[in-house]
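Lab channel / #folding
Pinned by the channel admin:
"Please post every new chain as: sequence first, then the structure tokens as a reply. Keep commentary short and put observations after the output so the thread stays searchable."

First post following the new format, from NK:
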Amino acid sequence: LAALCLGALAALAAGADPFAYQWEQLAPGVWAGVRDPFELPQEGNAVFVVMRAGVVVFDAGGSPAMGEAIVAQVRAVTDLPVTHVVISHWHGDHMRGLQAIRAAFPQAAVLAHPHTRQWIEQTRDRWLKRRVSMVPNIRKALDAALAAGQDLAGRPLIPEEKAWLEQGLANTARLDEENRRTDYVVPEGAIEDELVLRAGRREIRFFHPGDAHTAGDLIMWLPRERIVATGDVVTTPVPLMPSSYTGSYVAVLERIRALGFAALVPGHGAVQRDGRAIDLLEALVRGVGSQMHALVGQGLGEEAAIGGIDYSGLEAPFTHGDPFLEHRFQDYVAGAELARAAWRAENGEVPEEPF
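Reply from TO:
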């Protein structure tokens, strides 16, 4: 529920549309739709590239309204149709806008990694059941937290978080409307390793860099423009680590760094113009992994090892003493899941990807 109740302090103006992107032109014909990473509802960033014969979209938003926002921006920029939509991974906040894009451009090819396609297909019926009860459950949780003066994790409610939760509550009617009209579009094509699209001097590469945020992550790379879009492999300012493949994550980050990008569009958060987000995330994954290696070497069991991870030296570069960001770090990173994933990696197992 905490992940579903996101609302950004930076976007809390009364009457603000909770289903909107801030559009940024990164290069001629290359547009990034950026969301505040804490805005309710939590929706992933999107990118589209105008090619000679049509438009290529990377990620589709998490609701029909966000898909419609992508369509509107494409039509504001060009008369060309969308020819391809590539999904970075299976999480709903990056793919539930597909139906709106497909409705506007029915001939567009929808592509994803085979793992992503499988998970979208397998979770569709579960989503159709969950979408009806989701908002009532969110409202119940928010009402109870605000009445008790606590946040969703049971911590004393700080003023910034109180405003955040109140705005989240105000947006639930729109969220319920979007949920109830959302269906899943299952990608019909697969990108297992790499797909290269070329038109004139423009080239787009989609590739699977290894397992990181999920086992089906795809990256978009424009070598001439030196623009990379990472999906949730990289998010800012606080990483999302629900089921990280810690055994291969660092290698994935090194592969992204080696591209020599000039701009990085994360799955959530602002466009990055340097490698600092990569460096911080690598230090985090290495730090947790090395601690877990030592704790397992001491013969500790799973829960004792997970509880033994010390985040005190890893948190400050992400939160800078901001209490709101400190709570997000506790929820997204220092909760048991990152440490549990490191435990599983240390024992030769893969993480469980939660729905």
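NK: DSSP finds eleven helices and twelve strands in the chain.
TO: also worth noting, Residues 114-148 form the longest helix (35 residues).
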